[in-house]
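Q: Give me the 3D complex with zinc ion.
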Amino acid sequence: MNYQEAIKIFRTMHDKLHAIHHALGVVHYDAATVAPKASAEGRGKTMGIMTEMSYNIQTAPEVKEAVEWLLSNKDQLTPAEYREVTEFNKSNEFISSIPMQEYVDYTILINEAEDVWHRAKNESDADAFLPYLEKIFETNKKFALYYKPDQKPYDTMLSMYEKGLTMEQADKFFAVLRSKIVPLLEKCMSVPQVRCDFLSRTAAIPTQRIFSDYLMEVLTINRDNCGIGETEHPFTTNFNKKDVRITTHYHEDALVSSMYSVIHEGGHAMYELHSGDDLEGTFLSGGVSMGIHESQSRFFENIIGRSRGFTALIFPKCQELFPDVFGDVTAEEFYKAVNKAEPSLIRTEADELTYALHVLVRYEIEKAVISGDLAVKDIPTAWNNKYKEYLGVDVPDHGHGFLQDSHWSGGSIGYFPSYALGSAYGAQMLAKMKETIDVDKCIATGDLAPITAWLEEKIWRHGCMYDPGQLLEMAVGAPFDPAYFTDYLEAKFKEIYNV
Ligand code: ZN
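A: Here is the predicted complex, encoded as structure tokens.
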């Protein structure tokens, strides 16, 4: 074998795999958006066959041979090629460690589980979903052990979403957050609460759709390359850098719910849409990890979207579109309302201050289940107890409890810490950005270009070229430090609550 032959096999494999993932992604997107309710069965069969095809393409002996050749002839490869082959090889080692039938069966299980979860959530039916959840946890643990038999399985899972992350690091990180957030929250709760009555006023959904289009425009997202769908749980999916889809969920009595979903998913979309052109058509295109991905979405959602400048910037449009909601409200009241700190039930609608506590609940439950300390059937009780302990709230039903998120039904175990990490990464990026950019002024004037240019230069264009920790360090010139996030929260909430 020589370089030309090896790289040709590798590229052909990439293109075929990408085509199958594209098609699978469209099927999945269709399922979540417009497919009729009772369509899961046929889709499961199709997805099973396509997964088998992708497994075979990826693990073919000639691919293995080409990859081995490329890895042992590093001097003939560009740094990007070497990185690409190395990264592919790692994911391939994971896939190859799983027997094909188990891998295919898992895809079918997830398709069914997502379908059952939708109904279970709406009907608050824990018993319907728990058997699926049990299989999902069990299978994820089994796969983690196939892949890294000598490593703690939950460490392996965490590392799938945030490379290198371990329970030891996550424990320390969450301990820092808890020690700062809990007393700050208590202080905020000890003074009169901000006004937020108007946020539950009726806002017609067709007008909310117009509002979403407006927000995308403010965020400078090119709509020719980014569509908005409607789903139970908002998400972003990307097929290539010219075709990214975000979704939202409209609630007539909670206008800002969709508003912040659009801004959050818009942040994910920006990251994917601005992946480097040189990386397109390779395994290095697109976001590097869920932690970095969430740093971008939560940067848009919170650092930009929940800033005084941004809420003031969009306020005239809010009043124009929703006069019945904002008629007797000031821009300052709007700013404070969207930053109302209050223990609550739903993670995706939690304020910036309490958000990490919601993530902590999920992290501790996942860790306990995977280590064998908690049975899946006891998750609902554990969930409710932890919400009482950390947030002081009573969970009224499972739809507002452990069934609220789509992640577990989609097989994502180990994902949640990425949200809290991403929030903290974003705060450190903001501090660095402020050394050269008047961020507040850019947001207040609606000129996001200097901010997006910074993010594109430091994060987006690099795709998967660097590991997440390395990428962050290159961007901010220092190792990760959660103090930037806790300092940011303290400054922001002490000012809002005057405590
Ligand atoms: Zn997200």
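A quick observation: Strands lie at 226-230, 236-240, 243-248.
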